[in-house]
Amino acid sequence: MGTTIEKILNIPEETQTIEFKRLSGSKVVKKIIQTIVAMANTDGGTIILGIEDPEKTKLKGMERVFGIEENKVLFDAIFHELKNIVPPISNLKPNIIEVSKNKSIALLNIPKATECFYSIENQVWIRLHKSNKMLTTHEVIKFNYAKGFEKADRELVDVDLELLNTKYFNDWRSKRKIDSGEIKDILFQTGLARKNAKGVIMPTRAAVLLFAKFPTELLETKCAVRVIQLKGTVEKFEKTPNYLEKPETIGGPVVDVIRKTQEYVLNLMRSGIAIHSGFVNKYKIPERAILEAITNAIIHRDYHIKRDIEIRIFEDRIEFLSPGLFPYNITKTNIGHVRSDGHRNDLLVKHLREFPEPPNLDLNEGVRSMRAQMNSQNLYPPIFITYPIYEDSVQVILFNENQPSEWEKIRKYLEQYKYIDNKTARIITGEIQVYKVSRLFRKWVDKGLLLKIVAESKNPRDTKYKLSNVEELQDI
Questions:
Q1: Do 174 and 295 belong together in one domain?
Q2: Four-CA torsion 83, 84, 86, 87, nearest 10 degrees
Q3: Whole-angstrom Cα distance, residue 441 to residue 415?
Q4: CA distance 297 to 344
Q5: Cβ contact 169:352 at 8 Å
Q6: Are residues 325 and 209 in the same domain?
């Protein structure tokens, strides 16, 4: 697979999580500090010091390596300026890699922020695809909720406590063996209500979501699920939308929303969908995968954003669009592989577990199970799409399509070597026709399975592809 430096030089472009920086220029230290803040505030990443950006130079291979020795003063200045980041980013130490006797590079591995935004000079930055963006005050507030730094489920809401004295409250109370007491006292003692600034006990948003019959009508936000079944494989925004029937809106207490949404969607999937050929398309997506996707979308969404969860059912796939970004340490590349450090809606999740027959609430097991279930049916793996394509949401896609044998060969190659071109793909698949492999690549890019990297030469032969859910520096 080559040496570490060869793997790094093989990275064809900067990304949301990768940046190359030569130590030259009067503003380079400021830009590096901004990028540290931006990456930490997004999904983390790596800054590679001492190597020129491949898209900004005609130099190739080792010629791009200038090393941190190019300007040791600037290198030291980076770590001097780190103290100005608020709050401090702890344990940010360079990984020095020796390239030759007199030349070395440094990798700065930036962890994802899990509790609050970092700032520099009172400015909050986030990472776009290949650049940084400074947030406005309004955007900081919005992103605080979207990333789970501010917990909407714990906020107090102006809702009469008696409206929560429902069957759902009694089911929860019975399961917890709370035999007596006023609802006000019970909610206060269990953390589902608190005193406001005037000393008045008020319910949290979690309490309303758990117990109220009509949470959407009582809260200033939206907390329902909209299920839309569509003709074909593309949503058409025309005078008459290509809906098979009127979209279904499912509301109510969270435990009911989960159950009713699961029942409604599974019934649609079991019935199949009429396709243009006149036949009825039957869905092969495992029901367990659908149940997990629905549960995760509902319990892990951002309940501050005034938008419902949307589930779209097409001929070839089902999409789940849930407000909110991945919280804590979770990213689109590690979800299901690492355990989350916490829940965005921890109060909601904690008490939802106390209902009779609660839904499965384990994020890590849920995603892992989805992958296993899809693979058991020889279907494509779940796809996770989020920021910056969706500014404040996460989309999960389950494809109703068997994986061709070529995909498995391409996937295994990419897991080991990161990048592939048409020529290499033809060698490992045995397909000799250039256009057939190009068609496969185009299909996988459209599905979100692969990312296309257009070479600076613009020559199609130099175009490369990589997996959409694997970090460039993974295993380096």
A1: no
A2: 10
A3: 16
A4: 12
A5: no
A6: no
Q: How many CB atoms are located within 10 Å of the residue 294 CB?
A: 27
The reply to whether 234 and 302 lie within a common domain is: yes
146 located within any domain? no
Query: Is 353 part of any domain?
Result: yes
- What is the H or E stretch that residue 368 is in? helix 363-376
Which of the 8 DSSP states describes residue 276?
T
Q: Which domain does 53 fall in, by range?
A: 4-135
For residue 264, give the CATH number of its domain.
Answer: 3.30.565.60
Closest CA to 109 of 44, 42, 14: 44
Q: Which whole-number Å values give the CA distances from 134 to 17, 124, 141, 386, 456, in the listed order?
A: 17, 6, 13, 19, 28
> Nearest CA to 111 among 45, 161, 38?
45
CATH code assigned at 424: 1.10.10
By the 10 Å C-beta count (0-12 exposed, 13-18 middle, 19+ buried), 162 is classed as: exposed
Q: Does residue 332 sit in the same domain as residue 372?
A: yes
| DSSP structure string for 33-53 | HHHHHHHHHTT-EEEEETB--
Domain boundary pick from 165, 193, 213: 213
183 and 50 inside one domain: no
Q: How far is 238 from 179, CA to CA, in rounded Å?
A: 56
Looking at the 3D structure of the chain, how many domains does it have?
4
What would the 3-class secondary structure string for 439-473 be?
HHHHHHHHHCCEEEECCCCCCHHHCEEEECCCCCC
pLDDT mean for each 10 residues of the chain (476 residues)? 81 93 94 98 96 92 94 96 93 92 94 95 95 96 95 96 96 92 95 96 98 95 93 80 88 96 93 63 89 94 96 94 95 89 93 88 74 93 93 95 92 92 95 93 94 84 90 69
Question: 3-class SS at 99?
Answer: strand
d(CA 369, CA 402): 18
Cα 348 to Cα 289: distance, rounded to the nearest angstrom: 22
**Residue 468 burial by Cβ neighbours in a 10 Å radius (0-12, 13-18, 19+):** middle
Whether 143 is in a domain gets the answer no
Which of 372, 399, 426 finishes a domain?
Answer: 399
pTM of the model: 0.91
